[in-house]
Amino acid sequence: MTISLQDFLATAPIVTVAATGLLVLLAEAIREGTERLTCWLSVAGLAMALGLAAARIDVGPSTRAFGDMVTVGGFANFFAMIFCLSGILTVLLSAASIQKEGGGYYGLVLFAVTGMMLMAAAADLVIFFLGLELMSVSFYVLAGFARARPMSNEAGLKYFLLGAFATGFLLYGIAFIYGSTGTTSLENLPLRAAGLAHMPVFVIGLALLLIGLVFKVAAVPFHMWVPDVYEGSPTTVSGFMSTGGKAAAFSGFLLVFGPLVVTAIPSLRDVLAVMATLSMIAGNIAAISQTSIKRMLAYSSIAHAGYLLVGIVAGNAAGNGGVLFYLMSYTLMNVGAFGVVSVLEGTDGRNMTFDECAGLARRAPWTAGLMALFMFSLAGIPPFAGFFAKYYVFTGAVQGGYTWLAIVGVLMSVVSVYFYLRLVVLMYFKEGAEQKVATGHSLGFVALLLAALGLIAFGLFPSLLLDLTVHCF
Length: 473
Description:
The chain is mainly α. It has one domain. It contains 21 helices and two strands. The longest helix has 32 residues, at 150-181. The two termini are 27 Å apart.
């Protein structure tokens, strides 16, 4: 394989983020106290990559680089936009709280984004695995980044041990698929699925891949690590993992378990449907009893993984488009929700409870208003983007013959309204203790405002986002 300058130009978004990460590490190594510089450098690099990805999203999905190992345009660039947006919001929200933890944070965020972009751009399972490991190793360190907090250390260690175990399943799955097909090409996998559906080795390989990906998206039954890891990790990191990491894993779902594969192996489709059902039920029911906002959002992320799996089960264009719309919307509303929690926590690292938010609207009206908006969108209440995200995946399920799964999703969405609006009721209709509310950093407020405006724009004009998804498949 020959590598040319054209390969680097074709993959400019990935190269930009990776180069920015190296530049940030170099700046921190040369001089101490460069957090402000590296923050702005990270934002600039991610924004440039976002612009490059958006500018070339209409490039045909068959375009390849680096010896047909990496895809260019369309699907890869849409996900690159999600990852860069998640990274920008995370960096801005972390500007105030992360400085006291020492250097290395922004570089880890950038390398995590690089790994995510490699996963979505992979045309080969080997590249997908390299991206997955780059993202995962960065997340292991970020989860335990608050070195002085035992809960953060526990979160990092727990995520590392369980994540390494799940990665083993995924790697064995790749080996089994290679043994049955003679290739690791993601382009050939869907085309051969129907002919190899009777081969036990091939089916076992897909099952092992499924286990690894289900762990990464935090769906039942591989979900129990989520509440502890999200609660112990720095709050901005929890938001980053729950959005960027989940979106990267779902890019793998769309690449490996696309319509051709799930329709060729009906039993696999049924397994995914059961996982989606259990995730929606378990996540929403468990979230009801939580007193910590972070744990509520953690269990909520399990439920949202179930909603997204509904789009995968649909096995059609409507389901795939719904998943893309959902992932962009979910990134905005969940990073925003975790971002508000990080602002309210301040720098003391405590976990906010529901009761501590009582009367927040009177003490911090802007913060309460933004949190209410994110809660409405997570609950799927119009006219915010969260409503259309659920509508599109459920529509895909109905068109794919899984009306019962869409009904379960609607019922569980109704259940979720209770714990999302419970927080809104406490903020606006309950009296709380008179205490000073952390105001956060101005950059953090800008990030929250951008996320809120995005949710309103995609809710009022969903075609803005849907028109981009037509270039992805």
